[in-house]
């Protein structure tokens, strides 16, 4: 016999359970909808700016024989006096460049100006004093001597010449630049004693030097 009371109780229990579940689901939904929306944080990487020191480190030249050699090529290769200013200028400080220009202007006033042309770098022995940023360079170069200006009829071509320079460098704006330059000689002849003393000092203090290897010109003059 069907028990009506038990059926009613079971039905009521089921209804109550359904209502409870609906209430719980509704509460959860209401809670989620009322939560403050979380702003998605976008981490923006800061723009990488290259500091001057970084740029200098990347673009700066190293103090080595190649740096000196490159300068000598530009300095001793010219068709005539002053023609190569724009090529050697990047290797010098502003003060050194102005001094060099001044010396060239003085030489232009001499009667001998214009008789020596077509300078060509040949080779160089380069001694480095890395601690004091000083260089001794024995430079060989070729010139053409004219009997008359602009007249190659009786020209002496590829006459071998030699100079011994002492070059002092300065670290400026991320580069090693020439700050002073002078030729080592006395009365037109090289001061051998001074050279020997310098070479000895360079050897004793243990700085880089390359006396036996002549660096041949491996680059053409930049235009």
* Strand portion: 25-35%
Structural class: alpha+beta
Write down how many β-strands occur, each being a DSSP E stretch of 2 or more residues. 5
- State the distance separating the first and last CA atoms: 118 Å
Corresponding CATH architecture of the domain at 65-206? Roll
CATH structural fold name of the domain at 65-206: Nuclear Transport Factor 2, Chain: A
Name the shape in a single word. rod-shaped
Biggest sheet layout: 5 strands, antiparallel
Helix content: 25-40%
Adjacency order of strands in the biggest sheet = 4-3-2-1-5
CATH class value of the domain at 65-206: Alpha Beta
Helix count, per DSSP?
6
Computed Rg: 41 Å
Q: Topology, please?
A:
Layout: H1 4-33, H2 52-59, H3 65-76, H4 85-88, H5 94-108, E1 116-129, E2 134-145, E3 156-172, E4 175-183, H6 192-204, E5 209-216
Antiparallel strand pairs: 1-2, 1-5, 2-3, 3-4
Summarize the structure.
With 223 residues, the protein is an alpha+beta fold. Helices cover 37% and strands 27% of the residues. The longest helix has 30 residues, at 4-33.
Annotation keywords:
Nuclear Transport Factor 2, Chain: A; 223 residues; alpha+beta; 5-stranded antiparallel sheet
Write a structural description.
This protein has a domain at 65-206: Nuclear Transport Factor 2, Chain: A, CATH 3.10.450. It starts with a helix and ends in a 7-residue tail after the last strand. The protein has 223 residues and is α+β, with helices and mostly antiparallel strands. Helices cover 37% and strands 27% of the residues. The protein has helices at 4-33, 52-59, 65-76, 85-88, 94-108, 192-204, and strands at 116-129, 134-145, 156-172, 175-183, 209-216. Residues 38-60, 186-190 and 205-223 have low confidence and may be disordered. The relative contact order is 0.13. It contains 6 helices and 5 strands. It is rod-shaped and about 140 Å long. A hairpin with a 2-residue loop joins strand 3 and strand 4 (175-183). It has a 5-stranded antiparallel sheet with strand order 4-3-2-1-5, with helices on both faces.
């Amino acid at each position: 016999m069907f028990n009506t009371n038990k059926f009613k109780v079971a039905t009521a229990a089921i209804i109550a359970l359904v209502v409870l579940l609906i209430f719980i689901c509704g509460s959860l939904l209401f809670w989620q909808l009322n939560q403050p929306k979380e702003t998605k944080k976008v981490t923006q990487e800061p723009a990488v700016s290259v500091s001057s020191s970084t740029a200098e480190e990347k673009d700066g030249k190293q103090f080595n024989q190649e740096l000196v050699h490159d300068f000598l090529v530009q300095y001793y290769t010219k068709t005539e006096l002053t023609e190569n200013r724009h090529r050697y200028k990047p290797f010098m400080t502003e003060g050194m460049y102005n001094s060099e220009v001044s010396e060239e202007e003085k030489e232009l006033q001499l009667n001998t100006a214009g008789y020596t042309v077509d300078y060509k770098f040949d080779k160089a022995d380069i001694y480095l004093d890395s601690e004091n940023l000083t260089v001794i360079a024995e430079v060989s170069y070729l010139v053409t001597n004219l009997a008359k200006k602009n007249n190659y009829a009786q020209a002496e071509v590829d006459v071998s010449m030699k100079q011994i320079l002492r070059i002092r460098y300065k670290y400026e704006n991320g580069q090693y630049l020439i700050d002073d330059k002078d030729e080592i000689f006395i009365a037109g002849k090289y001061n051998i004693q001074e050279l020997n003393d310098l070479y000895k000092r360079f050897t004793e203090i243990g700085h880089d030097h390359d006396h036996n290897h002549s660096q041949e010109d491996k680059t053409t003059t930049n235009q």
